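Quick review question:
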């Protein structure tokens, strides 16, 4: 079984449910941990009794570090700040072998196990933005896209995950500043900073049409 996590609030709930349903339709053997980022979203999702999902409230998830920086972040910035913490929460609490964060507005056409199998014995899976040359924003937005990122529950995976969580708590804003942007620019040097990093080569992931 593959373990995924995502986060969204009431505004993004329709997208998150479509993403969940798309995974169902691929026939994937999976479980999705959904972090509900407001009370209304949590209440609605709990009532739906989604067979392949666990719903986690902010009250369950938020720790002192996140609560300390929450007032200084916009809603979007706080979601970005929280992304590595959701992955860490799933690994720590549910003792899974690996966890993949997926953006709530993704749509799956085939079983994503082919993507996870590509990483082999590596511990971290990164997804390229693949910007077309004339629309390349990687200098400010980052080489890699957080929308599909995997960490294994081992030394190399947790080393990178914990570093990323600490960095996002320290600084995670919707602006380019000193080589940083949100949660994404932190990933730019991971192939040299950390061991066990694989960059996804499958061309079916994250194609940007240049619009």
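Suggested answer, residue by residue:
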């Amino acid at each position: 079984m593959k373990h995924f996590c995502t986060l969204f609030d009431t505004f993004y709930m329709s997208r998150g449910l479509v993403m969940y349903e798309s995974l169902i339709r691929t026939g994937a053997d999976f479980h999705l941990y959904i972090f509900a980022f407001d009370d209304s979203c949590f209440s609605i999702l709990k009532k739906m009794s989604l067979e392949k999902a666990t719903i986690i409230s902010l009250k369950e998830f938020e720790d002192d570090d996140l609560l300390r920086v929450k007032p200084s972040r916009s809603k979007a910035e706080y979601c970005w700040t929280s992304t590595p913490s959701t992955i860490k929460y799933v690994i720590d609490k549910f003792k899974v072998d690996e966890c993949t964060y997926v953006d709530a507005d993704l749509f799956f056409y085939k079983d994503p196990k082919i993507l996870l199998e590509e990483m082999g014995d590596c511990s971290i899976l990164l997804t390229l933005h693949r910007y077309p040359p004339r629309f390349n924003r990687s200098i400010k937005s980052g080489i890699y896209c957080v929308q599909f990122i995997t960490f294994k529950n081992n030394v190399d995976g947790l080393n990178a995950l914990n570093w990323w969580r600490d960095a996002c708590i320290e600084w995670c804003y919707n602006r380019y500043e000193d080589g940083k942007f949100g949660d994404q620019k932190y990933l730019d040097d991971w192939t040299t900073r950390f061991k066990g990093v694989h960059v996804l080569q499958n061309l079916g992931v994250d194609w940007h049409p240049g619009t």
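Why it works: The two ends are 36 Å apart (CA to CA). The first helix runs from residue 13 to 26.
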